């Protein structure tokens, strides 16, 4: 049986969507194929997102930001926008059977010291992983 294909979408595909892809792949890779993309991809994945994921045993250091255009014509079962900007620009991913939104604050906008900013990435990671466990982890896609 083919696993449902899930695409996480954010503006830059540098943090939230990369963390979501990495977590879904690591924890539920037997149930789902996980991907991520952005409509304005950054040059690299955020080092703070990499650090936050390493803290829970998941290595996303080999990930690269990808353009949403990469998935044009690729059949997807579900697209999930994780930032309000992505939802506004791309409320529906054309190649996805369904597009939903789960708003996660941008950790890059966290003010403060390096430690306080990293805490913003941890909060985003924890929101994403808890949501995935609550929804996709219980098998809402079959």
What can you see in these coordinates?
It is a single chain. With 142 residues, this protein is α/β, with parallel strands linked by helices. Helices cover 34% and strands 13% of the residues. The protein is built from 4 helices and 4 strands, in the order E-H-E-H-E-H-E-H. It has helices at 16-28, 47-54, 84-89, 114-134; strands at 5-10, 33-38, 78-81, 99-101. A 4-stranded parallel beta sheet has the order 2-1-3-4. Helix 1 packs across helix 4 (114-134) and helix 2 packs across helix 4. The chain is globular. The N and C termini lie close together (11 Å).
Oligomer: single chain
> In what range is the share of β-strand residues?
5-15%
Largest sheet: 4 strands, parallel
Which structural class best describes the helix and strand composition?
alpha/beta
What would you call the shape?
A: globular
The chain-level mean pLDDT equals 92
Could you state the order of secondary-structure elements as H and E?
Answer: EHEHEHEH
Low-pLDDT sequence parts: none
Q: How are the strands of the biggest sheet laid out side by side?
A: 2-1-3-4
Helix count equals 4
Helix content range of the residues, please? 25-40%
- State the end-to-end distance: 11 Å
- Rg calculated over all Cα atoms: 14 Å
